[in-house]
Amino acid sequence: MATKLTLEALEVLDAIDRKGSFAAAAAALYRVPSAVTYTVRKLEQDLGVSLFQREGRRSLLTPAGRVLLDQGRDLLDAAQRLVETTRQVSRGWESRINIAVDSILPFEVIYPHLEAFYRLQTGVEINLYEEVLGGTWDAIGEGRADLLLGAPEPPPNTRGLRYCRLAEAEWVFAVAARHPLTSVGRALAEADLQAYRAVIVRDSSRRAPPLTRRVFDQQAVLRVATIEQKIEAQRRGLGVGFLPRHRIAGQLRRGELVVVPLGRETESTPLHLVWKSNNKGNGLSWFVENIRRRGLKL
Questions:
Q1: In the 8-state DSSP scheme, what is residue 72?
Q2: What's the pLDDT tens digit per position in 138-175?
Q3: Rounded to two decimals, what is the model's pTM?
């Protein structure tokens, strides 16, 4: 059954409510009063309800009319946003861009780029969220993200994607300041670590096999959702593990965490900017160019 409610009718109700009378609403809408009256009477007939009541010279909404207009204004706002989005897309700007930031990076790294982008006043909606390990590549592969910041090593299949290396994260083995491992007095072997709980971050992949890194065999584990949670857990002595040095500079400086040497070299992780090659939108192009030009300072 076709709807009996139109945006035109809602605009008439809105004008009457704001102006207080049918005549004033007609003037605001550049219509003759009879056209406004006809629109209201037709809507009342179609819906089977009374929408206005007279009080002196003013036309006031009935309770049913108030409900209709209050929710109808949401429809009017949505229609206006749709019009603006359509015009925006026609000029080459996306309606929205989803940006995933790997947990290895603090969210602060994206904010300067957002500040510069918002100054353009494009109207593009930006959605930011966090991913972990393989979850970053999974996010863009499954369409949840248009742009990745801080993605680790690329998977075997990167068809349809472009990427570039922005920086490299150094990993160090860190424990709480009073942890027993700080007093061993030599480089630690794997056997020294097995007795202590490892704090690991859960991979946020939804489809790809989850990744788990830098965990020794036969260790008990505490699983957390983000690097930030892992840092806090290790600071409190709840476990041990590798942490990116750039994320714990403050804790190291204050002596809350201590780097202990291992009997083998620790690894580093390349951090990539990744985007979809078939997305030619102005917004995504701006972010790629701006981030590549300014780089990533850890």
A1: H
A2: 888 777 888 999 888 877 777 788 889 998 889 999 99
A3: 0.66
Q: Quote the DSSP letter at residue 49.
A: S
Cα 127 to the chain's mean position, in Å? 3
Q: Which two tokens stand for residue 149?
A: 């910041």
The domains found in the chain, sorted by start residue, are: 7-90 (1.10.10.10), 96-167+270-294 (3.40.190.10), 169-267 (3.40.190.290)
DSSP 240: B
Which residue from 199, 272, 185, 206 is spatially nearest to 235, judged by alpha carbons?
199
Q: CA dihedral in degrees (143, 148, 150, 153; nearest 10)? A: 50
- Sole residue written with tokens 């070299």: 265
Sign of the C-alpha dihedral, residues 49, 51, 54, 55? positive
Question: What element of type H or E holds 286?
Answer: helix 282-294
Nearest alpha carbon to residue 276 among 268, 284, 267:
284
What is 251-264 written as a DSSP string? Answer: HHHTTSEEE--BSS
Q: Are 163 and 275 in contact (CB under 8 A)?
A: yes
3-state helix, strand, coil in the chain (%, to 5): 40, 25, 35
SS3 234: helix
Q: Round to the nearest angstrom and report the end-to-end CA distance of the chain.
A: 59
Beta carbons of 64 and 50 less than 8 angstroms apart: yes
